[in-house]
Queue: 3 jobs
Job 1
Amino acid sequence: MSEPRFIVVGGGLAGLMTTIKLCEAGHRVDLFSVTPVKRSHSVCAQGGINGAVNIKGENDSPELHFVDSVKGGDFLANQPLVKGMCYAAPGIIYLLDRMGVTFNRTPEGNLDFRRFGGTLFSRTAFAGATTGQQMLYALDEQVRRYEAEGLVRKFEYSEYLGSIRDAEGVCRGIVALDLRTMAVQAFRGDGTFLATGGPGMLFGRTTNSVVNTGSAAAAAYIQGAKYANGEFIQVHPTAIPGEDKLRLISESVRGEGGRCWVPRKKGDARPPREIPDADRLYFFEEKYPRYGNLVPRDIASREIHDLCVNKGLGVDGKLVVYLDVTHIPAETLDRKLGGVLEIYEKFVGDDPREVPMRIAPAVHYSMGGLWIDYEAGTDGFPKVGSPRNHQTNIPGLFAVGECDYEYHGGNRLGANSLLSCVYAGILGGPAGASYAKGLKGLSADLPSGIFDEAERHWRERFERIRKMSGKENPYILARDLGETMNANATIVRENKTLKETDDRILEMMKRWRDINTLDTAGWGNMPVPFVNQLWNMMELARVVVLGALHRDESRGSHYKPEKPQRDDANWLKTTITTWSKDGPQFTYDKVDTSLISPVARKYD
Amino acid sequence: MSKMVELRILRQEGPNAPKRWETFTVAFRPRMNVITCLQDIQKNPVTKDGKTTTPVAWDCNCLEEVCGACTMLINGRPRQSCSALLEQLDQPIELKPLTKFPLVRDLVVDRQRMFDALIRVRAWVPIDGTHDLGPGPRLNPSVQGRAYEFSRCMTCGCCMEACPQYGAGRAFIGPAPMTQVELHSMHPASAMHQEARLHAIMGPGGLGDCGNAQNCVQVCPKEIPITDAIGDLGRQLTQQFAKDFFGK
Ligand SMILES: Cc1cc2nc3c(=O)[nH]c(=O)nc-3n(C[C@H](O)[C@H](O)[C@H](O)COP(=O)(O)OP(=O)(O)OC[C@H]3O[C@@H](n4cnc5c(N)ncnc54)[C@H](O)[C@@H]3O)c2cc1C
């Protein structure tokens, strides 16, 4: 009898934690990633990870964390998973500490915590301002330990193209593309995890890393996996405008006391330091006295948009406001926010300790993602070890991390994603193991037919792409997609524009067929995989745009001036999108709100 | 006419293919970095003298100098191309791949050797398990602060490129893995296993191969005190030698 084998695609926090859980149970894992896993997008996370450890004596508790998260998500999240995550959070932070994450300390040597958005408690543990990098490195080290023991085989510079399904529709493995040799190869697996992160690149320039195309999740969707709540895209209020990327200025900057303001007088051209306090509009603090600068991101971004676009109060008349930390002692800034301020200094050239930063909203995170199942007990907690947890509707295919749709409802609270990624691994790993135990036959024992067939399919597709010699430049097409999405499907969404945007995506899909792939080399060819990804991105862009068009209400990050209110009677439901030849099909599922009843969401 | 930027790029289609220089011009925009230029070339892969070519291959991911992927030689200096702002560079800007690692294509190299070295030095905390064992040890904030300096190493390869002792055909594992050995001596649980790490950096390829040129610390984009780590590890090794010699 052979042992089950597992495939984990993606080596960010979620993929690595899943791998660790599987290896700890003695299983073997093949780990695939387009970048070396240590360079995954999770390194970008700056601000921290939430957990109600209550170090500051504020009477914080996991239950309060749960309430804040559900409310922050505007009641669209299935509550048992959120509850499980919040109660597991203190233990997760302790575990990371034991793994060597260099979390900041209090004078007594305890873990230090800071404020973040959407809560009144100091609940966010942090390692300077590079928390994601530190966490990823700790998990990377643990995986390397298993690699040294022979349990993990890494396939880096290897891209997931699609799943291999048997006659019953069960996922039996994947097809991957070696990004150096360009070889297309099938791999057998008994449980396959997608941990491929978010789809930021649909929006062109964002706070995300360049590999975050969402292409892997889109490929699963095209193959029949359901995609959920795709229209919920988080726009972060504070990023630095840039030519290649909109670099994030973490919410932790406001958590440590940073204040947003604009000049009260339209067109006030004085340099910011010469504008006295009385002439400054601290807009968050005036409108939201309780939460101030730490209102949740959806609200903060809308506020900035309204202030700059509708009221014309933006700095220099642009969609730009000041984020000011000049009143905070430089020593505190260096110790707690060094990494973020360094980014501002390096990329803008001004020292934020001296001059208020100029920042603007930017696409940041996708609450939506692959639909996954879970099993909850009568106590309201998810059942650890249930094979249903994190499994997509394709048997044997699981999704963990930003590429799944759970935990954050209609809007994610800051510092809850690092948490949900690790928790997803903790829940997902054991789910995969129980699933494989229940399998009648292992994929290693199957005849080679479905694997050969899958390889043939993808080889042919790549051969066709390599030979495309039309007139469209793929990178220009991607830029056009990003600009269209960014302009029309972010902070404010109008039905008419959404409809036009979908038409434009359909046009771009036609343009795609006339692409010139620019490079025919059979070694290290970058355009060929990109052209394939670009198709998937357009398929996913339609899910976002049409999901937004259909959802006729405003909830969390999804805001329609035509329907500015949340409409629980008609829309307290999960959007489910299924791929079809005629375009995305929409159905809706009930949300599990059995633990906390929806109430109006207020932060003033 | 708008200001133009000129780039000379060393190209090579694969490890055994011939090298060639290509020159490109792209339109200048304020706050542009080298990555933006390479992206512009993707959108119009035509050289300065009008020859259609392939887009340049290079590695990148985060674009904010935390992933380490986009390291290359820019005007001769190893650094990340995302944080290489044009306003601060002499023109024509010369881009070459790192020379101490096997070439993949154009500006892409294979830094696997660096990750292998992390296995050799056992750079991990051997935790008892992921189950709930309560809070970790308390830690002096100043120790955390010191550890943090080393934990920001992004395996980018700048220090390896600059090190005269490191390179193809040489055994030296290079400066970067040393910083991780130093890092793990500061974590209370990991420090219990420092002996195994010290043994891993004794002998051929180990710390003794460092020639003390101190180039590493000058090119580290994260200003990691690499030479402090090397100095401290020297002391740790001396003690370990004594222990090994007298202890048996
Ligand atoms: C700038 C920034 C700051 C942030 N700060 C915070 C914060 O302070 N706190 C917080 O909680 N959250 C934060 N977030 C959000 C958080 O960082 C991400 O949601 C999280 O890291 C996602 O992790 P992941 O494991 O799901 O995926 P990722 O880390 O994105 O990893 C995806 C992996 O999948 C691989 N991959 C992708 N496609 C393929 C494919 N086709 N084939 C093979 N491999 C593939 C990639 O190589 C990578 O290894 C921040 C996000 C950004 C952009």
Note: The radius of gyration of chain B is 21 Å.
Job 2
Amino acid sequence: MSIRHAILALLSTGPKYGLQLKQEFEATTGDVWPLNVGQVYTTLQRLERDGLVESDDPGSDSAHNSFLVTPSGEAELSRWLNTPPDLAAPPRDELVIKVLCALKVPGVDVTTVIQVHRRYLVELMQQWTRLKEDEADFDLSFALVVDAELFRLDSVARWLDAAESRLRRSSMEPRNESGAPLLRRRLVRWR
Amino acid sequence: MSFLELRNVSRSFGVGEAKVDALRGVDLSVEPGGFVAVMGPSGSGKSTLLTIAGSLEEPTRGEVLIDGVSLSRLSRNEKARLRRRTIGYVFQDFNLLAGLTAVENVCLPLELDGVSAKRARAIGMDALEELGLADRSNHYPDQLSGGERQRVSIARAVVGERRLVLADEPSGALDSVNGEAVMRMILSACKTGVAAVVVTHDAHLASWADRVVFLRDGCVVDQTTAPPSPESFLQPLSGLEDPSSGL
Ligand SMILES: Nc1ncnc2c1ncn2[C@@H]1O[C@H](COP(=O)(O)OP(=O)(O)OP(=O)(O)O)[C@@H](O)[C@H]1O
Ligand SMILES: [Mg+2]
């Protein structure tokens, strides 16, 4: 999440003060991501240093200044909007690691471990859905943020479902002697 | 008091080697206005649970009570009336009547129950409109897409004076916006006191329910507790900065 670029986006509709930026940022993200005003001022100072924004009274206390975006700030914003974030490398997902570890621990029922995490995810999703039920009809940004979070949690829940059914199937199949899955063996050889 | 109660319900199919225990000692109760989702892998007994709760099948053991009355004490006719008037059922394969249009399918149970044709049609049209199908009301099922048929069958299940809605994968053929419209419709029925049980393996949809029950191998293995409050996860953004942003 880049506060820097979010601020450039907010300034693209006209000059603004720091406090105003904080409020607009929170409104734009459906009040889901509160931001402290200190972060806004630090970010504005750095943007100014890099020539991406200009203050109406350079050198004075940024709390009293209004800021506007420069042409190079506009170019940077456009570059950022159109650059896909790096999703190529899988993140080191703690939940995936927990399930992989559970497989190794004697006496641990992995299905039970999976269910603990599944229930937690569904409870979180219930909470997000509750928010949507009350407000989403009225606020597009908020609905988009809530959907993004629901889809993210849902994809984790689906992974747990897939993991459980994979476990079930593998417990019914005979093991290959080396114990290592075929695909992994092949990848290891490729390297 | 619960509107729907399953007490120690078991159901098996077949005998000997081929015997399948689809449900084993399931307890479940749903209050009026309660919205329960049932999740579980394929074959875990979800549809079996729903058909037994809807009096379409008998349990091998255990008891089902609707509005405090044990189904085993009702005559065939009384059960038929219960299914027509009180229970709205959304089948996994929609089960629309091919010779009737969308709106006729929706109002059929109302008319069977003595509501005037004109009034039934108005109620049916409202329900279809809420699900974005106003312009499809005069189409026959074979002229509708899978998702449209599914929404017609949901409209049919919630209209009238239903007090229990049972839905089996009500959004299997729907995209997320239409799936949401369906869950909102069931939720608004619950707000008027209808008890609902929705079977789904989609966590997104299950999250509309007040309570999610997890079924595995015919047993209830877990259920959600009161979800955490939103404040606990809405925290000021700090330490989340993208390092490449230069901050
Ligand atoms: N009429 C029947 N005769 C024999 N076995 C049956 C019958 N109906 C269901 N079963 C078995 O009972 C078990 C539970 O079936 P059920 O249809 O309730 O599963 P489900 O959870 O709804 O699955 P899905 O998600 O695939 O719809 C399955 O193993 C199924 O094969
Ligand atoms: Mg089923």
Note: The domain at 3-82 of chain A is CATH 1.10.10.10 (Arc Repressor Mutant, subunit A).
Job 3
Amino acid sequence: MVSVSEVSRPIGIARSRRSFLRRTLGRQEFWRGCVAIVVFLILWEIGSRSGEWFGYTLPHVGLLPPPSDVAVAWSKVLMKWGYWESWYQSFKRVLTGFIAAQIIGIPFGLMLAVNKYFRDIFFPPFEVLRPIPPLAWVPASLIFWPTNEMSIAFVTFLGAFFTIVINVLGGARTIDVRYLRAVQSMGASQWDLGGRRGRRDDLGRRHAGRWRSRLLHLEFVYGRIAAANRCRHDLDRHCRLPFKHRHPHDRPQCHALAQAVLIRKTGADHAQAAQ
Amino acid sequence: MHRQLNNTDQPASVASLAGSTASQASVEIKGVCKSYGEEWEQQDVIKDLTLDILPGKLTVVVGPSGCGKSTLVNLIAGFERPDRGEILLNGRRVTGPSKDRMVVFQETALIPWQTTYQNVVFGPKLRGDIKGKALYQRAHELLTKVGLQDFMDKYPLQLSGGMQRRAELARALINQPQIMIMDEPFRGLDAMSRGLMQEFFLRLFEENRHTNLYVTSEIEEAIFLADRLVVLSNRPAQLRTVIDIDLPRPRHYQVLSSPEAFEYKRAAMEILHQEAMRSFRPSVTGRLPGRP
Ligand SMILES: Nc1ncnc2c1ncn2[C@@H]1O[C@H](COP(=O)(O)OP(=O)(O)OP(=O)(O)O)[C@@H](O)[C@H]1O
Ligand SMILES: [Mg+2]
């Protein structure tokens, strides 16, 4: 018989790491992608050198430097400190903006999903601001951020923020009522043990219950995210989980979080109504 | 499949696993009304329904499609509240969902991002009432019981329809419900697996005799399974009749070809047919369907 620890271990992490490279190399999609890139580079090279080779310069493409020249120039730049400094700076800006967008966007999206009043108040202005493209914010951000760095990070933030909020909201909204009901029957109402109302149980059990459900909650969220990330590699091909990417910006993590939290929340509401 | 059915012959009984003390629950449905929609276009779905679900019996509810069977399930499970009347479990009023009343839903409700094992242990883990090794053992035994011991680490979408239903049965049983409510649990399975699942379910029931409410729209399935057959009218659902099905247990599929079963079937069919006709007539005469 399998032991408990073996079962609760996240499935096949070591195994999937070891064979990842082999699986990728064995995949037709991978090689098709490689061929596509190589063909693209060759066409570009031919296009750029058309004047040199055929005596006729192709419009547009003919004006570009060929990829081989780009590669030579790049190898020279590689030696320079400033090049790497730029990498570092760009990373820092993008990461700052993106992480800030997550920190604000995920709770904000969850609140929109969970609380009607919050949604009534904050969703309309959000929707007014959302269609404004990040680039259009540049002048404004230059005015109200003291440093250049901050305004750049802010524009990155905006680029991610609206997408994240919409995804969290969408994820929370698409939970099937069956799941909510199923977990309600199994006692999901324990999420909301503290706070607004008392419980019949004595205090000790209340706290124990709270911690237990918090831990479980985390596990739930983790499991959902792991499954979302895993679904493309680990599961059989014909087994597509319903939360696969629907859009390049669609982020399963956000869906995961939103669904997990909302499942708890609904359980809590129900228990409250039952009191 | 056959191998899994034979699992029921193993000595470890689900009755002992799922706690046989919890089984003798009764449900009283007293004058329950439920309607949907705004006041000006209200649609009665259940009208003045009074019904007892007897302890240790398998009560099967049949009714035409759309008559309000799932609504009745939602009311008993506590997902929704009756507009009038009340529902009592062992004399106590039902006010919300609880693990006492587990539902196996019409469509699968296994959490898709959890494995079979994680799904099964979800309830006990959430409440923290069984822990560690004991929880693992109980889950393992139940999953063995339903023939899924080799599929513990599979995700629901990697299971076949019949396996999903069995996983869901295990997930419900581990919570030791006082009453199991099954809302057309085998709908959507092919005829072959449905037959096997019915027999499998019947073995489980006959072994532990938990109070069970089973909803279906198929008359043969109903007669095959039932101790008591409750026939509902067309929407708004009202009690048409209760037929005590007095066929010997343990039952096997052959029982359906016996003259008694045939007689039950004829009686129930007659009522259902009347109801079905009633639901067609209003639309023929141009009135709204479902309105008297
Ligand atoms: N949440 C709801 N809001 C409005 N109407 C509803 C709601 N739930 C059910 N109904 C209506 O109640 C009626 C009965 O629905 P219900 O799902 O209970 O039928 P059913 O007997 O389970 O049907 P089936 O055999 O097809 O599962 C239907 O006409 C449906 O339109
Ligand atoms: Mg139904």
Note: Residues 81 and 187 of chain A are 59 Å apart (CA to CA).
